[in-house]
Amino acid sequence: MNPTPAFSLADVSFRYPEAVALDGLHLSIPPGECLAVLGANGSGKSTLLRVLAGLCFPERGEVAFFGNPLTEQTLQREAFARHFRRRVGVIFQNPDVQLFNATVFDEIAFGPLQMEWPKAEIVERVHAALADFGIEALKDRPPHRLSGGEKKRVALASVLVLDPDVLLLDEPTAALDPQSQGHVIDFLFGCLGKKTVITTTHSLEVAQEIADRCLVLENGRTAAVGPAAEILQDTALLERTHLVHVHRHRHPSGAVHSHPHRHY
Ligand SMILES: Nc1ncnc2c1ncn2[C@@H]1O[C@H](COP(=O)(O)OP(=O)(O)OP(=O)(O)O)[C@@H](O)[C@H]1O
Ligand SMILES: [Mg+2]
């Protein structure tokens, strides 16, 4: 028998006043899966993550978390909301929206304090998270006055310190330098099979390295969903959905020409 999906979406649609962002999505994500959500700018990736995070609610269709309906009403029940927020870690595309403490240390300690962990454990875990993301030197700085990549690392540390078993990550490697990207990919690699990870990315390299399956969105609809190896080889699909670029480039021979190309 298949396990209860971590998330299931049935015919989910969501619109902003200006635009339809999700349009009749069906999706089932088994626990322990790593799903990469791909798609052009504006295709609905961040909106899908917000719906999964219980931060916006579809105008039509149903979302369930381990079989429990995820709605405004169910999240008003304190026990369910606490359970859901405890298990699900969310990284936003723009870290500014999730950093609000006076120092980096306080930012990372915030979640553990809410969980009422023993003080000594909080201090220990915060230091471990600072070390994991190479941000020890920033611990006394105000998060809102860091560089974009530093903020992203603080946001990642502040969520991962809680060790959630479901991760919703909106472009977790965007804005990071190659070494920090490597750390995040390594971390996600270590999560494979243990945590449920849903990550958006514009990097086919990241998708290839960590995803079990890929979902490609196009105008809020599923353009394709399937094993990562299959989706990432479908050049026509990737070109149509803006996931490979065509531009002039130079080959080592000096020849300059234009065709879809990938950097791995
Ligand atoms: N806060 C908002 N208010 C109104 N419309 C929005 C808002 N956020 C997104 N949209 C619209 O909803 C659609 C989906 O946007 P979404 O942010 O989900 O796309 P995305 O795939 O995450 O794009 P990107 O790759 O640029 O991050 C787009 O048409 C966008 O213009
Ligand atoms: Mg987005």
Keywords:
single chain, 264 residues, alpha/beta, Rossmann fold, six-stranded mixed beta sheet, binds adenosine-5'-triphosphate, binds magnesium ion
Proportion of β residues?
25-35%
Oligomer: single chain
Give a list of the ligands: adenosine-5'-triphosphate, magnesium ion
And the CATH topology? Rossmann fold
Q: What is the mean pLDDT?
A: 94
Main beta sheet, described?
Answer: 6 strands, mixed
| Count of DSSP strands | 12
- Based on CA inertia axes, which overall geometry fits? globular
Q: List segments where confidence is low: pLDDT < 50 over at least 5 consecutive residues.
A: none
Tally of distinct domains: 1
Instruction: Give the topology string: H per helix, E per strand.
Output: EEEHEEHEHHHEHEHEEHHEE
Description:
β1 (7-15) and β2 (20-29) form a beta hairpin. This protein has a single domain, classed as 3-Layer(aba) Sandwich (Rossmann fold). Strands 6-7-8-3-9-10 form a 6-stranded mixed beta sheet, with helices on both faces. It is an alpha/beta fold and 264 residues long. The chain has helices spanning 45-52, 78-87, 104-114, 119-132, 148-160, 178-191, 204-210, 228-231, 235-240, and strands at 7-15, 20-29, 34-39, 60-65, 68-69, 88-91, 166-170, 196-200, 213-218, 221-227, 245-250, 256-261. α3 (104-114) packs parallel to α5 (148-160). The two termini are 38 Å apart. The structure holds adenosine-5'-triphosphate and magnesium ion. Magnesium ion is lined by residues 45-46, 93, 170.
